[in-house]
Design a protein that fits this description.
Distance between the termini: 40 Å
Number of strands: 4
GO biological process, one term: CTP biosynthetic process
CATH class: Alpha Beta
Number of helices: 8
CATH topology: Alpha-Beta Plaits
Protein name: Nucleoside diphosphate kinase
Radius of gyration: 16 Å
EC number: 2.7.4.6
Shape: globular
Bound molecules: uridine-5'-diphosphate
Strand content: 15-25%
Largest sheet: 4 strands, antiparallel
InterPro entries: NDK-like_dom, NDK-like_dom_sf, Nucleoside_diP_kinase, Nucleoside_diP_kinase_AS
GO molecular function: ATP binding; metal ion binding; nucleoside diphosphate kinase activity
CATH superfamily: Nucleoside diphosphate kinase-like domain
Length: 153
């Protein structure tokens, strides 16, 4: 079971609906580690880099309007088989098809405004992490804080 890193976006609908915290909590409770995290405004240029494979598709103009409409939380999650674990937790693209218990299944009924993005494979993860984060922004696992916590007031 490989330890993987994956690029996750909490899209503008998740932030606007105050669901960034609950969705992030799900990933942490699953045991995935936050390796990088920031709040960003996606620009049209960034959207075109991220969604290069979709730029020519009929739905792209609406997708770009949506993903640039407000703040997005970008993060790198790390864990065993993190890429497929995150994809499973997200559910399928369309919230109407997504089973209860998945993020999209629990919080939405839209195909476009589906709250969350997760890389769909190792190649995409490497490419997408590099789009959103400088290498120094992705933090390696640190030593446990136990010695400091037990020594504190
Ligand atoms: N999308 C859309 N209309 C479509 C298909 C996709 O607006 O008909 C949006 C949706 O937000 C989706 C994103 O484009 O999450 C990327 O599509 P993809 O097929 O890669 O879906 P995902 O991997 O996010 O489930």
């Amino acid at each position: 079971m490989p330890t993987e890193r994956t690029l996750v976006l909490l899209k503008p609908d998740a932030v606007a609906r105050r669901l960034a915290g609950p969705i992030l909590t799900r990933f942490e409770q699953k045991g995935l580690r936050i390796a990088a995290l920031k709040l960003i405004q996606v620009t049209p240029e960034l959207a075109k880099r991220h969604y290069a494979e979709h730029v020519q598709k009929p739905f792209y103009p609406m997708l770009e309007s949506f993903i640039t409409a407000g703040p997005t939380v970008a993060l790198v999650l790390e864990g065993k088989s993190a890429i497929s674990v995150v994809r499973g937790m997200m559910g399928p693209t369309n919230g109407r098809d997504a089973a209860p218990g998945t993020i999209r299944g629990d919080y939405g009924t839209s195909r476009q405004m589906n709250l969350v993005h997760g890389s769909d494979g190792p190649e995409a993860a490497a490419k997408e992490i590099a789009i959103y984060f400088q290498p120094h922004e992705v933090v390696d696992a640190t030593e446990p804080l136990a010695p400091w916590l037990s020594a504190g007031d």
